[in-house]
Amino acid sequence: MSPKTIGLIAHTGKPNVAQLISAVAGEFARFSIPVRIEKESAKLIGQKSSATIAELGEETDILVVLGGDGTILNVADHLGEIVKPIFGINVGSLGFLTCSTSGDYRQAVESIAKGQITFGERTLLEVKVVAEGQKDTTAIGLNDVVLTRGKLSRLIRLRTRVNNEDLTEFNADGIIIATPTGSTAYSLSAGGPIMSPDSRAFVITPICPHVLTNRSIIVREDSLIEVEVTEPEYPVYLTVDGREPVPVSAGSVVAIRKAKKTLPLAVMPGVSFFSVVRQKLKWSGSNV
């Protein structure tokens, strides 16, 4: 089904993105589909707009994001309670979450305009921090939740439970709890597995654990994962989807579970998750 209104958001720090904003908006105009441009993106092309990301999420049918995976994560963070479908056009280097390159923007716009794209429902994480004497804080993440040490090169202790049963107390640089979407990000770099978006699971990956037998473990997506900060001496920081780190005091518990809502992420016609993995990770087979 063809969308009635497009929200256009760009990473304003990317080179040549202003030309791409104008080009993409022009292509949608060719199909007589109105485009609303986010205010900072509009400034780049000399237009006036007061639209925030959250407002575009409320008032448009699909959000076209020009940037990389980090740009999409930022947009998802700013959408609030109303989650709209996202179509990513990659202006970066890797881009697992984007589904088109900047050079193929015409094909991307045509596929959107003709209703040829499909959407995969991506699992989101709900993160709650419970600290004694403080108000509980909650956040939503698409990729991962990371608890890690600060500037000191010291291991930290993180007692981890799954569905109220002890898993272990990790003595490590930190721990990553990732969705299937986030399994190709930090978790992968830390030695975790790649999971397809429909895996219906989370992966818990320790970062440089002291005990070498501590390895990634996959749990069902309906699991409750609780990480208690038991490190009394050194600072521990919480990061959700690479946002600003938040200090977590000893004795605090970070509870992670599947969020009630999901994020519809666009997929181009004829493109599969495995074809993206082959392309992005350059899995071309053996040279032997």
Summarize the structure.
This protein is an alpha+beta fold and 288 residues long. It has helices at residues 17-30, 39-44, 53-59, 69-78, 105-113, 186-189, 273-280; strands at 6-10, 35-37, 62-67, 86-90, 100-101, 118-130, 137-141, 144-149, 156-162, 165-172, 174-178, 201-207, 217-220, 225-229, 236-240, 246-248, 253-267.
What does this structure look like?
With 288 residues, the protein is α+β, with helices and mostly antiparallel strands. It has 2 domains: 125 residues, 3-Layer(aba) Sandwich (Rossmann fold); 138 residues, Probable inorganic polyphosphate/atp-NAD kinase, domain 2 (Tumour Suppressor Smad4, Sandwich). Helices cover 20% and strands 36% of the residues. It contains 7 helices and 17 strands. The strands form 3 sheets. It has a 6-stranded antiparallel sheet, covered by helices on one side. A 6-stranded antiparallel sheet has the order 13-12-11-8-15-16, with no helix packed on it. Helix 1 runs parallel beside helix 5. The chain is globular, with a radius of gyration of 20 Å. The chain starts with 5 loop residues before the first strand and ends in an 8-residue tail after the last helix. The model has no long low-confidence stretch (mean pLDDT 92).
What topology emerges from the helices and strands here?
Elements: E1 6-10, H1 17-30, E2 35-37, H2 39-44, H3 53-59, E3 62-67, H4 69-78, E4 86-90, E5 100-101, H5 105-113, E6 118-130, E7 137-141, E8 144-149, E9 156-162, E10 165-172, E11 174-178, H6 186-189, E12 201-207, E13 217-220, E14 225-229, E15 236-240, E16 246-248, E17 253-267, H7 273-280
Helix pairs in contact: 1-5
